[in-house]
Amino acid sequence: MNINELVENKPGSIEKATIIEKEEPRSFAKFGKDGKVCNCTLEDSTGKVQLTLWNEQVDQFQKGDVITLKEGWVKSWNNQLQISTGRNGTIEKI
After folding, report:
1. What sign does the dihedral 46-14-7-35 (CA atoms) show?
2. pLDDT tens across 48-65, in order?
3. In Å, how far from its chain's centre is CA 24?
4. What are 4-52's pLDDT values in tens digits?
5. Cα 73 from chain centroid (whole Å)
């Protein structure tokens, strides 16, 4: 699946995309546990989408990495599509 095929509130996969931008990670506490979150911009030949990295993913991926994301979850925030691994997805460098 390409970025331009992602649909809000549906599962989504991206076959191959590059992290072209990575923001500074933010720390948070929820339900008594500490965590990290970081927004990135993914790009493929069809477009761009925001990728949200959580916890250990924040340190595993850097600007310039080429990734594949399987069974992620697509949502919209401020009229912008975002994708993350959600509960069941996986993300890997390729």
Report:
1. negative
2. 999 999 999 999 999 999
3. 14
4. 999 999 999 999 999 999 999 999 988 888 999 999 999 999 999 999 9
5. 9
Which of 19-27's residues contact partners 24+ apart within 8 Å by CB, and which partners? 19/51, 19/61, 19/62, 19/63, 19/64, 19/65, 19/66, 19/67, 20/48, 20/63, 20/64, 21/63, 22/61, 22/62, 22/63, 25/53, 25/58
- Whether the pTM exceeds 0.85: the reply is yes
Write down the residue that tokens 């399987």 correspond to.
Answer: 70
Q: Which CATH architecture has domain 3-93?
A: Beta Barrel (2.40)
Q: Tokens for 85? A: 């691994």
Q: What CA–CA distances, in Å, run from 3 to 22, 56, 75, 81?
A: 18, 24, 13, 10
Tell me which amino acid residue 28 is. F
> What does the domain layout of the chain look like in residue ranges?
3-93
